[in-house]
Amino acid sequence: MNDTAQAPANDERVKEISSFRKALIRPELGGIIGTIAVFTVFLLVAHDSGMFNSQGVMNWSIVSAQFAVIAVGACLLMIAGEFDLSVGSMIGFASMIIAIFVVSLEWPVWLAILVTFAVCITIGAINGYVVVKTGLPSFIVTLAFLFILRGFSIYLPQAIERKTTIGGIKAFAEDDWLAPVFGGKVLKGFFQWMGDVGIIGTFQNGSRAGQPLVDGIPMLIVWAVALIIFGHVLLTKTKFGNWIFAAGGDAQAARYVGVPVNRVKVLMFMFTAFCATVFATCQVMEFGSADAGRGLLKEFEAIIAVVIGGALLTGGYGSVLGAALGALIFGVVQQGLFFAGVENSLFRVFLGVILLFAVILNTYIRRIITGER
Amino acid sequence: MADPIIRMENIEKHFGSVIALAGVTLEVFPGECHCLLGDNGAGKSTFIKTMSGVHKPTAGTIQFEGEVMNFENPRDAIAAGIATVYQDLAMIPLMSVSRNFFMGNEPTKKIAGISFYDKDHADRVTMEEMKQMGINLRGADQAVGTLSGGERQTVAIARAVHFGAKVLILDEPTSALGVRQTANVLATVDRVRKQGIAVVFITHNVRHAMAIGDRFTVLNRGKTLGTADRGHITPEELQDLMAGGQEMAQLEGSLGGTV
User: From chain B, which residues contact A within 8 Å (Cβ)?
Assistant: First the structure.
């Protein structure tokens, strides 16, 4: 390899590092390798299964976007040195209170959505406030909220509607101005055009004949991309991003130089709650119903995506782009196994193997970068 | 001599029923390196934490540049120009040198009305400052974890000076370092002192103190045992003062005077 890296130092013990190696050694490397690996595997074993036609791509893109939305929040929070185990329950709780506001209380959908965001972000702030004020591990505090919120999302619909699933929200959402921001689709014209010129498949017969099989990009994917960009820019390009790293790297050292560590952590808990609520709202608007069991185990899936993406469990190190790749790997593997006709339960085996390999690789890379021993 | 930049007068600090400081008086002048010596538990840490705004004194006054100060938190002290470099907490190893350097004081630039972290500026200033301090970095992106202990202390000192410290408190900067790294840190202290900054150097190593100090104050059991100028005290006398005299003399006898 021909490298042009200059040696700026004349210390004989500072080894020269080639620009190629420098570009390679980055927190996302594990995620990048994992992504290439899973795509290679599925292109080989499932290329003719429909996984890579328009519907197939949309299928795993949506699943990946679901993971990505909550992974971005979990990633920033983990870099700030905390966990939130209540994400899954928060999703269930948020879906349920939107449904109750809309169906039982007959509020306009936009108001229900806005109030739900306010309530959930407040709960996120309480999570964070309890953690920073008591100094308890966030693991325990948010574990408490995992049960509290799940309990409420089962109790409330039973107490009010005498059932655990509330449906019929679509009818209310039809003319609402805010609902399409979560449940709508964009670029419909573009997909129609792609269908017309034959880039993607169209329905051959029936009432929708001539329409493309995929008629637009769901807002969930738009939210995922927007949150990834926002999270990445916030973390790497702003002053606040530096505070997030500092708060998770060494809270005391950060405090000594004047970083408002507690405020950073509470804000990150609120952001995580915001992401969970985005996820919940998108699902409610898409399916038109809320179920008490929604979001089960999502907190762990988010954490796994973040860790595959190269973040350090103890905080202070990580990458939003990595977490997004982790979410993509997650989505592609989950749906790919289905396309490849592999028994569904093996998904967990694959997941465990990928998790283990990614973490070992990431630890190795991190040691190179940070000089940890 | 000029007026002291900081004067701590009859500082007392009680933690519940424990009297950690029982009236300590100390003056530090610009451009001097004032060594604060004392054995473990003498009250050194409590004293400098009072100076840097971490603790509020139970009694006594802090005068900074002739004015009585009431620091509520470390931020107030930093804003006034009192910077502290803690032994273990100087730097965050996982973060790059430049991000550490500007931690809490990040430079920003506005793009389309939104303020962004000015990475180019931060990296450039960091490289310049490190070069002046004699540290060769591979790049400003290099993680602090890849630096040696002495280099980390030096980065922390350079950071404090860059952000306008008038009084620099160093909490045992050399206690975990090897011989060469210690020499580097002491050289850094000398450079800082020549810029007219007052340095308060906490240590329990008499050799390090003698190597760099202009004046020496010994703390024992929460009290000052007096301040001595350079040249008016021998290392042995300092050692005896720190350890409280007699016991040490006996110990030293059995160890052949090597401690």
Answer: 74-75, 78, 84, 86, 89-95, 99, 102-106, 108, 115-117, 119, 136-139, 143, 145-147
